[in-house]
Amino acid sequence: MIHLKNLYEINQIELANKMVAEILQMCKECIKPGVATIELEEIAEKYCADNKVRPSFKGYKGFPFCLCVSLNEEVVHGFPSERIIKAGDIVSVDCGVNREGYYGDAAFTKIVGVVPSSTKKLVKTTKKCLNEGIKKAVDGGRLNNISHIIQSIAKKGHFGIVREFGGHGVGFDVHEKPFIPNYVTTGINYKLKVGLVIAIEPMLTKGSHEIERKSDGAVSFCVNHSCRPCSL
C-alpha cells in the first residue's frame, strides 16, 4: 500500500530529514585519509543520543549500526568498522533517523584525495542522475519518468546500473512502497501524486549491474567503484 502524507506529516518528515542532513554534514567534514569508518558511526550515535532521536537503520532487519558506510566497490549496507579511509577512496554514507515516528533518509558520496578521471565521472554522473530524477518527481508524472532519466544518463556515460536496489517511499517507515528502480521496467509505473514522499537513489557502477554479497548478507558490491547519492 502506498501512503500519501498530509501537510503536517510532510513537515514532520522534513524535520527528521534536517537532522539526517546535519549528521551527514558532520560525517562529510570528518572524512579524510586516516579516519576509520567507525568514527563516522560514533558521530551519528552521539548526535542521535544528544537529540533524543532513534537511528532508524539500527536494528532494522538485524542491521547493527546507525550508518551504512560503503567504500569504493561497495554499493549499499556497508558496515562501519576499523577500516581506514585512504586517499583515492570514494566513501558513501547513508543515514536515517526516526523523529517522533517520522522517518528521514539520505546519503552522499565523497571523493577522498586524487582519483582517476573515470571515478570523477562516475560520481558526477550519479549526482546528475539524482538531480534530473528529482525534476521528474512531479504531480501527475509517472514513476518510469524518474527511472527513464536515470537510465538514460547512466547509459550515455557508459555506466552500469544496480538493479536489485533503488529508491523507495519513506516517511512512516524506513522503506515504503513504491519501489523506484533506476531503470525502466514494464511492471512498475505508478502515477505520482501530491503527498507522496520518496527517496530517489541512483546507484551506478564502473562495472556491470551484477552484484555479489558478503557471507553475512549485509554488504552488496560490484566490480570496481560504485556511487550512490540519495535525496528525499
Briefly, what is this?
The chain is an alpha+beta fold.
Characterization of the model:
Helices cover 31% and strands 22% of the residues. With 232 residues, the chain is α+β, with helices and mostly antiparallel strands. It has a single domain (7-227), classed as Creatine Amidinohydrolase (Alpha-Beta Complex), CATH 3.90.230. Strands 1, 2, 4 and 5 form a four-stranded antiparallel β-sheet that branches. Strands 3-12-11 form a three-stranded antiparallel β-sheet, with no helix packed on it. A hairpin with a 6-residue loop joins strand 7 (167-169) and strand 8. Helix 1 (7-30) crosses helix 2 and helix 3 runs antiparallel to helix 4. The longest helix is centred in the first third of the chain and has 24 residues, at 7-30. The chain is globular and about 50 Å long. The two termini are 19 Å apart. Mean pLDDT is 91; it is low at 218-224.
Name the features:
alpha+beta; 4 helices; globular
Unreliable runs: 218-224
Label the CATH architecture: Alpha-Beta Complex
The first-level CATH class is given as Alpha Beta
Total helical elements: 4
CATH superfamily: Creatinase/methionine aminopeptidase superfamily
Order of helices and strands: HHEEEEEHHEEEEEEEE
Into which percentage range does the β-strand content fall?
15-25%
Write the layout of secondary structure elements.
Blueprint: H1 7-30, H2 37-51, E1 54-55, E2 67-71, E3 74-76, E4 90-99, E5 102-111, H3 117-135, H4 143-156, E6 160-161, E7 167-169, E8 176-180, E9 198-199, E10 204-205, E11 212-213, E12 220-221, E13 226-227
Antiparallel strand pairs: 1-4, 2-4, 3-12, 4-5, 6-10, 7-8, 7-9, 10-13, 11-12
Helix pairs in contact: 1-2, 3-4
